[in-house]
From TrEMBL:
The gene is mutM. The lineage of its organism: Bacteria, Pseudomonadati, Myxococcota, Myxococcia, Myxococcales. Keywords: DNA damage, DNA repair, DNA-binding, Glycosidase, Hydrolase, Lyase, Metal-binding, Multifunctional enzyme, Zinc, Zinc-finger. It comes from Myxococcus llanfairpwllgwyngyllgogerychwyrndrobwllllantysiliogogogochensis. GO terms for molecular function: 8-oxo-7,8-dihydroguanine DNA N-glycosylase activity; class I DNA-(apurinic or apyrimidinic site) endonuclease activity; damaged DNA binding; zinc ion binding. This is Formamidopyrimidine-DNA glycosylase. Gene3D superfamilies: 1.10.8.50, MutM-like, N-terminal. Its cofactor is Zn(2+). Monomer.
Length: 284
């Protein structure tokens, strides 16, 4: 699943292996994969352009081009990007192929076909993708527990729903939200505004630990060079319904919260807010 660790790893790989190289050709294999402009315009906009920078914003990869445009890629659930020799066999899930100088090509693939690309002048792309409306990045140095507390204080929705609101926190996905709440010992159904100061601090710390752990293990998917990351997709609670909690042994509970599949331990993450079981997984 492509969440912040997986996307950030690809962005870092792109800075290492692709920045400074020129796009010599583009092939759109699934027209629906291009959000804007039209596929023929998309191809024309990229041909001959040099990639000058690569960064991540939330779950977008943003490639700066030498003419003032930005190429945006979003993997959605299971998309990914790989760097392969020109002439490699095209996987059936291929959506877009961008040939580079040096006889290599970038392949955007997605088994579900949901991944998307777009290119435009940077200001236009930022506006059309609403990037300026995104919340702060969890891993930014200036994203403190005080900052998180302010963003949660007036939210009357369940905590899980608020954490997935990209205007509150940018890029936190379903898996990493569940894992963060488990590490913090917080019930995902609690109202965001109900958290105490200590609970906000626990949550802030847990979110950073979960993302940093994912990055250190290079995510759960294959990186730009085809090497599989070592992080587990099903970690402590995510998609482990009925399995024993790693901390206390209680079977993991599953329910829909705000329309999203959610997993938690009722003992380590009680509605009362005070963990009643072992606290190995709780960042106190």
């Amino acid at each position: 699943m492509a969440e912040v660790p997986e996307v950030e790893i690809i962005a870092r790989d792109l800075r290492q292996a692709v920045v400074g190289r020129r796009i010599t050709d583009v092939e759109v294999l699934l027209p629906e994969a291009v959000r804007f402009p039209s596929p023929p315009e998309f191809i024309a906009s990229l041909r001959g352009r040099c990639i000058t920078g690569a960064r991540r914003r939330a779950k977008f990869i943003l490639l700066s081009l030498d003419d003032g445009q930005t190429l945006a890629l979003h993997f959605m659930l299971w998309g990914t990007l790989s760097l392969r020799p020109v002439g490699s066999e095209s996987p059936p899930e291929s959506l877009v192929v961008m040939t580079l100088d040096g006889e290599e090509a970038l392949w955007l693939t997605d088994t579900l076909g949901y991944a998307r690309v777009a290119v435009a002048r940077t200001a236009e792309l930022t506006s059309r993708l609403k990037l300026e409306e995104l919340g702060p990045e969890v891993l930014d140095d200036d994203f403190t527990s005080d900052h998180l507390a302010r963003r949660l204080s007036r939210r009357r929705s369940p905590l899980k729903t608020v954490l997935l609101n990209q205007r509150v926190v940018a890029g936190l996905g379903n898996r990493d939200a569940d894992e963060s709440l488990w590490k913090a010992g917080l019930d995902p159904r609690r109202l965001a505004a109900s958290l105490s100061r200590d609970e906000v601090m626990r949550l802030h710390r847990a979110m950073r630990v979960v993302l940093e752990e994912g990055l250190s293990l290079r995510g759960t998917q294959r990186d730009l060079f085809g090497v599989k990351g070592q992080a587990k997709h099903r970690r402590n609670v995510f998609e482990r319904t009925g399995a024993p909690c790693p901390s206390c042994g209680t079977p993991i509970t599953h329910a829909r919260v705000g329309g999203r599949n959610t997993h938690w331990c009722v003992r380590c993450q009680p509605e009362s807010g005070a963990p009643s079981g072992p606290t190995q997984g709780v960042l106190l």
